[in-house]
Specification:
With 358 residues, the protein is of the alpha+beta class. The chain has two domains: 2-136 and 269-354, no CATH class; 156-231, no CATH class. The protein has eleven helices and six strands. It has helices spanning 2-41, 46-82, 85-91, 96-120, 122-137, 234-238, 249-261, 267-278, 282-290, 302-328, 334-354, and strands spanning 147-154, 159-167, 172-182, 185-198, 201-211, 218-227. Strand 1 (147-154) and strand 2 (159-167) form a beta hairpin. Helix 9 (282-290) runs parallel beside helix 11. The protein is elongated and about 95 Å long.
Amino acid sequence: MKILDWYITRRFCLTLLYAILPFVLIVIFVDMVGNLAKFIDKDVPRFIIFKYYLSYIPQIVVLALPIAMLLSSLFCMGYMARYNELAAIKSAGISIYRTLAPILVASLFISVFALAFGEIVVPPANQNKSGIESRYLDPFAKRSKRWESNIFLRDKTDRRIFIGSLDTKTNLAKKVTIQKYNSNKIIERVDAPRMEWRDSTWVLFSGYKRDFSNDVEKATAFDTLRAQNLDVRPEKIIRLKVEPEDMSYGELKKFIAEVKRNGGDPARWLVDLHFKLSLPFANLIMVLFGAPLASHKKRSGAIFGFIISLLICFVYYGSNRLVQTMGQNGTIPPIAAAWLTNGVFLISGVFLLIFTRK
């Protein structure tokens, strides 16, 4: 059995390699056609272009892997059925379940690898890609100062910070109000038209500090005021611009905690958080769903495999997008939005496996 397991696993993995390479090359080619003129116009160095597409590959691999896994399972089992290898295996008393075992085990390992790859490799690669895009491909990059507006934050000492706008490049904030509370009662307020990050501390300029202790308001003008122990570093605000795919699971979880602490609605990011766990295991589910379909000789042609792969992927990604939107809108819980499509395909795959000829 070890020889048979190795034979099936090797054929499946080689097919997977041949299936995923075209996806990577096609996406890079299409993107290059769209962006090459921009790179040439801005006289971007070749090593930057190479770095851009090198950083793009991990995200392509993660997105294309479920499709490639489905194609690999269909082509691998289809090949064995078409050339009567499955019939010979069955005649030796080996069931279809035992034949599929090495493919399913390999798929489980690949799913775990995809989870680790998406956590460790993809976020920094996406950040590098986004940095190159903002510098070389964004037509407004030179003119825009990347202002964030209407920011509301809360620090650990129950101070609430309102910022009208923030230049994330120079760490210059405008129209700043800092309110300190005690049991939902405001006890101190600082207003300033400008605030800058200097020497690891926020410094406010030309404002007023009001003290509401003992039910008496006391206002004091200041030219400069160092906001000591203000637990809101510029990085926290800049992170608001980072997309979920640019963050690891741990970083996104901390980001959601920050949103909750600041009184925001984290539903959108909670859905993305759960999808970071559910999407890698779509690789295993796709194989479980697709392999039984190709185990019958009459349905094992390459054309059948390609067509059924397109249909299954269209239904899967379409359903995933639908439930993701429903989760972000609060129609269904975030965890249900992330795992619903996987659950439906998993149950369907189990039924297909049960009713496949043994």
